[in-house]
Amino acid sequence: MAGREDARGQRTSGAGGQAEWARELLEHLRPAGRDPNRVVAWLAGTAHATVSLQDGTGRLLAGTRVPLDEALVADVTSGRIASAALEDRGRHLRLVRVERSRPAGAAVLAVVRRAPFDRDVFEIVTHAAQVVELLLAGHESTAAGLRLRRATSDLRLAILQLLMVEDTVSARRVAAGLWPGLLDTDTACVYVVESSPGERDRLAEECVSATGERALVVRCPAVDGHVIVLAPRDSAGQELRALVGRRPGVFLGGSARQGLARTAAAYGQAVSALAVARFHPDKAALYSERTRPERLMDPVGLHDWTAGVLSPLDTLSHHTRAELLATTRLGLEFTAVNTAKVLGVSRNTVRARMDRVESLLRTDFADLTVRAAVHLALNCQVGLAEPPPGAGARAGAVRLTDLLSGTALRTWAADLLGRLDADGRDLRRTLRTWIAAGGNAERAAQKLGMHAQTVREHVRRAEPVLERELLAAGSDLYEVVLAHLATGALDEPRLHGTKPGHPDSPVHE
């Protein structure tokens, strides 16, 4: 009867023993078991040895650290010798070179035993080293792939951020290296695809596949569940709609076609359309599918009013003006933190830029009517590629009340706000008071004599009725504010330090 040690010895000898350890070693190449640490642990148990895997600098990669002669390790890792075997103070040592990618450099597999190495153990060590080499190559290839994907993702985001601040020349230059021809266009649509944060990475890859890599697909840096797609081709919208249609819990918002320099405005449009998509049965909506108040205004008057509102910025350099306008446009749509993430700057930078615009316009962005008016001007400024015929004659003389007095716009405003009348809780009064209070539920509650939470619930209840997001400041809220201004429910905002209705009168007499 063989003892335990004898039985272990038999495991590594003969054709049957070789077949067994070879089968066990091959198991480590299966997808579920590809781990160099497990191979090193298996080798230690099979060869009854202490096993160490380290690189040329002595850094332990797997196994148990053992004292090794540095010169000998250097000879092996440098390729001067492929392997070494020696006996040192009762220890039997075997060193085998393990190839790795060139930047990482070769590693050395060291096996230390009390018993001498016989032919079978030598063979086990040699084959184990080959398996470790394969696994390291696979891991390094996977890591390199991850680094490449991360770098590509960062590059896509950098291109988007350049477009957000209207630097189309730099954006095209950066994109040309990896995606030739992608931005060889004057216009594009921006889409925002929404999913759960956990599904976002997979959704981004599906967006790349759906658009045939002929679109700029970016994981939104501000909202974890959003994927931003800038698509020059018209067919991208249908491709993304088909993707959303077969994915539960996924929604799509798309912008109108805009010039590349108007990417920030297109992004805001897409986010606004996304809010509508959540209420649509097909889970998708385009910005152009909804009547916008600026479309109902006199285009010549709107152009001249916009020129007057933004005229204090005309003395700035083109780059500074574009930077301030792009930041303000996004800052009026989103929080300073999210705007900073989208643009790749600090939130203090966002606040400083918006403070500068606020100072130049001599107004107060804490007032929702002011924010809505400036947002309207910014949208008009980016939406008109060419001034309409007859524009420019009345710059600075057109008032916002003139723009809001048209029959079509008043009808639109009355129809929109009239949807709230069917609710017995007087949502219309609550919403009007909440807007007048700057979107502050506590101040509105004090004026209404109700709890702040009730104010929030009323505002939230109004969202599906109006098909617009209100609690998150942005295009939807500003449209509702303009509707209140058009019906006379709110006073005209103060711009350029003027009293309502008097563009040339100072606020302080």
UniProtKB/TrEMBL annotation:
Superkingdom of source: Bacteria
All residue ranges annotated as the PucR C-terminal helix-turn-helix domain in the record: 337-379, 427-471
InterPro entries in alphabetical order: CdaR-like_regulators, PucR_C-HTH_dom, PucR_C-HTH_sf
Gene3D superfamilies, sorted: PucR C-terminal helix-turn-helix domain
The protein's name in its UniProt record: Helix-turn-helix domain-containing protein
Upper lineage: Bacteria, Bacillati, Actinomycetota, Actinomycetes, Kitasatosporales
